[in-house]
Specification:
By secondary structure, the protein is α/β, with parallel strands linked by helices. It contains 15 helices and 25 strands. The strands form 7 sheets. A 6-stranded mixed beta sheet has the order 7-8-10-11-13-12, covered by helices on one side.
Length: 464
C-alpha cells in the first residue's frame, strides 16, 4: 500500500478587502512551507468574489490587479463569484483572466451560442508531484436575468454537474467542486452527488470552523474579507485494486491581521499607484460644495434621484440617501471622487408598479426603522439605508400617515389602480427589504453601468 498526503488551502469572498490581503498571504505562505516540511502535496484554490469593485484597485484596474495578486500567491485554480460575473461588463470579464497563471474552472456559464467562454474550463484534472489525481469542477450562482442582460447564458448548476461528475469520478482519486452557490445549495449538492469528496464553498460567508459532513461529502467555507482561510488535510492510501481516502482534518483558520507579508505589501502599493492613475482623471469642476445628509434630502441626493429617473425613463424614482457616503467639495472632481462617495456595485433597475403598492413603499420608507436600517449585502457598502429620496413625486402631508391624495405624481394625486414606471436600485428588487418591489416578476436591469455612473453622468450634465 502507498500512502500520500495532500493539504488543500482555500480562500473565498475576499471582496477586495485588500487591506487584509498581506496577512492572508503571510498565513498561506506559512502553510505552504509547513506542507513541504511534512512531505505533503499542496493545492490552493479561490472560490470567487475575490474581485469587488468597491475597492479602488479593483475599480481602477478592472480586476486585473486582483489577478496579479492571485498569480503572485501561486493559486492552482479559481472559480468566479457573482462579483466577477455580474459586476464587470462582458468585455471586461472576457479580458479579466488574460494574464492568469491558473485555470478558471466554471461549468455553468456559457456564451449565447452555447460554448464555454474562452477563459474557463468546465473541469480540470490536477496531478500532484506524488501522483494524486484531483478532479476539480466549479459552479457559480445563476443570477439569470443579470447574466442575460450582460450577454451571458447562465445555467442550472445541478443539471450541468451531473454528466461532468460521471466523467470525472472514475478518473481521479479525489473529486472536488469549487462552489459559489452558498452553504444551503452546497448541502443540497452533497445530497444529490455523493460521488463528490469535497465541496469548497462560498457566497453566504459562513465560517465552518471544523467543516460540515453531509452524505459522506465534506463541505468547507471560510467566511468573508480574508479573516479566515480554509484548510483540509487528506490521506490517500493506494493499493493495486482500490484507493482509500481519509479526511484527517477540515477547518477554517483565523488570520492574524497583524502578521503581514512584506512582498505583498509592496505589490499592493504598486497596484494602488497604477489604479489611481486610471481613476484620477478630471470629470468636471464644482463651484460649490455638494453636501450629503442621510436623514434628509440634499441637492446631491436629489440630483442622483433625478438622474436615476431620467436614465431609466421612469415616472418616479427612489434611491436611499445612504448610498452616498460622503459629500463632494468644490473644485476639480475625478472619477475617484465619485467612486469614493458611491462605491457600491449596484445597478439601476426599472419595474412597473401599481399605485397601491407604490403608496405602500412610500409609507414603509418613511418609517424610522427603515431609515436607520443597517443593511448588509445586496451590493450595499454603506452604513444605513437613510432617508428615501424620490423624484417625480411630491408628498404633501401634515400627519405621519400618508394618504393617497398626499402623493402627487405628474401633477395628479396618486391613483391606486394606475401603473407607474418606478426606477430604483437592483438591491430593492432582491430579498425582502421592500417586498412590494421584490415580488414583481418583470424587472429591467441597466447594466453594466452602476449607480455611480449615473451620478457622474448627471453631475457632468448639471455642472458642465
Amino acid at each position: 500500500m502507498i500512502s500520500r498526503k495532500l493539504r488543500i488551502l482555500h480562500t473565498n469572498d475576499l471582496h477586495s478587502q485588500l487591506e487584509n490581503w498581506a496577512a492572508v498571504t503571510s498565513l498561506l505562505k506559512k502553510k505552504k512551507v509547513a506542507a513541504e516540511v511534512n512531505g505533503e502535496d499542496i493545492l490552493l484554490f479561490d472560490i470567487g468574489d475575490h474581485s469587488d469593485r468597491v475597492h479602488s484597485i479593483t475599480e481602477g484596474l478592472q480586476g486585473r490587479g486582483n489577478v496579479q495578486l492571485l498569480n503572485k500567491m501561486g493559486y492552482d485554480a479559481v472559480t468566479i463569484g457573482n462579483n466577477e460575473g455580474i459586476t464587470f461588463s462582458k468585455e471586461a470579464l472576457d479580458e479579466l483572466y488574460e494574464d492568469a497563471n491558473f485555470p478558471v474552472i466554471l461549468s455553468n456559464l456559457f456564451e449565447t451560442n452555447g460554448k464555454l467562454p474562452h477563459w474557463c474550463n468546465e473541469y480540470k484534472i490536477l496531478t500532484t508531484s506524488s501522483g494524486i489525481r484531483i478532479g476539480v469542477t466549479g459552479v457559480t450562482i445563476p443570477y439569470k436575468q443579470f447574466y442575460k442582460t450582460l450577454g451571458w447564458d447562465i445555467q442550472d448548476p445541478f443539471k450541468i454537474l451531473e454528466p461532468i461528475l460521471k466523467v470525472l469520478r472514475p478518473k481521479v482519486d479525489i473529486l472536488i467542486c469549487l462552489s459559489h452557490l452558498g452553504l444551503y445549495d452546497d448541502e443540497k449538492m452533497a445530497e444529490f452527488f455523493p460521488e463528490l469528496d469535497i465541496i469548497l464553498g462560498s457566497h453566504t460567508h459562513h465560517v465552518l470552523h471544523e467543516g460540515e459532513k453531509v452524505n459522506g461529502t465534506w463541505i468547507n467555507q471560510a467566511g468573508r474579507s480574508g479573516k479566515y482561510i480554509g484548510e483540509i488535510i487528506v490521506e490517500i492510501n493506494k493499493t493495486k485494486t482500490d484507493n482509500n481516502l481519509i479526511v484527517e482534518s477540515v477547518r477554517s483558520i483565523e488570520v492574524d491581521l497583524l502578521q503581514t507579508d512584506k512582498d505583498t505589501e509592496k505589490d499592493l502599493s504598486r497596484l494602488y499607484i497604477e489604479a489611481n492613475s486610471q481613476l484620477e482623471k478630471n470629470l468636471l469642476f464644482l463651484k460649490n460644495d455638494l453636501d450629503i445628509d442621510w436623514y434628509k434630502p440634499t441637492p446631491l441626493s436629489n440630483m442622483l434621484a433625478e438622474g436615476l429617473r431620467e436614465w431609466c425613463d421612469a415616472d418616479v424614482s427612489m434611491v436611499n440617501s445612504g448610498v452616498l457616503l460622503d459629500s463632494l467639495k468644490c473644485g476639480e472632481i475625478t472619477y475617484k471622487d465619485i467612486h469614493r462617495i458611491c462605491p457600491h456595485p449596484i445597478n439601476p433597475a426599472l419595474v412597473i408598479i401599481r399605485g397601491e403598492k407604490l403608496l405602500e413603499i412610500i409609507r414603509q420608507a418613511k418609517k424610522k426603522e427603515m431609515i436607520d436600517f443597517a443593511l448588509k449585502g445586496f451590493g450595499f457598502r454603506g452604513k444605513i439605508l437613510g432617508e428615501m429620496i424620490f423624484d417625480g413625486l411630491s408628498i404633501h402631508s401634515t400627519s405621519s400617515f400618508i394618504k393617497d391624495e398626499d402623493v402627487i405624481i405628474g401633477g395628479e394625486p396618486l391613483q391606486r389602480s394606475e401603473n407607474y414606471r418606478l426606477a430604483t436600485l437592483d438591491m430593492f428588487t432582491l430579498g425582502n427589504i421592500y417586498p412590494a418591489i421584490s415580488s414583481i416578476k418583470e424587472k429591467k436591469y441597466f447594466m453594466p453601468e452602476f449607480l455611480r455612473d449615473i451620478l457622474a453622468w448627471k453631475l457632468k450634465h448639471t455642472h458642465s
